[in-house]
Structure formats: C-alpha cells, structure tokens
Amino acid sequence: MNTTIWMALALVLVLEGLGPMFLPRMWRRMILGMAQLPDRLLHRFGGGLVVAGVVIYCMLSAHSGG
C-alpha cells in the first residue's frame, strides 16, 4: 500500500508538470485566471476534485480486489 501511494504521488507530479512544461503561457493565464476567482468557488472546485479522486480510488481498489 505504501508503494501505491508513492506511485500515485509521482503520477500526480508528472501530470501537474505537463502544463507548465509544454504550454507555459496558457498555464500561466489559467493560474492568473484562477487567482481572480472567489474563494467560495475555489473551495467547491477543490472539494469536487477531492471527491472525484476518492471515488476513482475506491473504484480502482474494488476492481483490483484490494
């Protein structure tokens, strides 16, 4: 289980790095645009990402028998 968590973290870092690596201008505009959003909207967006991540994790765990 410990290795799985580190592998998941590594994959997140790879995916997060693709934007600034390949599309730095677009990535910067997106970040600047997000900085202008109200806190409440960012809070909901972050919560939605957490819920989606937990659901995907649970689905994959159930599918793999773990």
From TrEMBL:
The alphabetical list of record keywords is: Membrane, Transmembrane, Transmembrane helix
Pfam families from the entry?
DUF2065
Transmembrane ranges, per UniProt, are: 6-24, 45-63
- InterPro entries named among the record's database cross-references: DUF2065 (IPR019201)
Instruction: Write down the superkingdom of origin.
Output: Bacteria
Q: Which PANTHER family match?
A: INNER MEMBRANE PROTEIN, INNER MEMBRANE PROTEIN-RELATED
Report what the protein is called.
Answer: DUF2065 family protein
Annotated source species: Candidatus Pantoea deserta
Give the classification, highest ranks.
Bacteria, Pseudomonadati, Pseudomonadota, Gammaproteobacteria, Enterobacterales
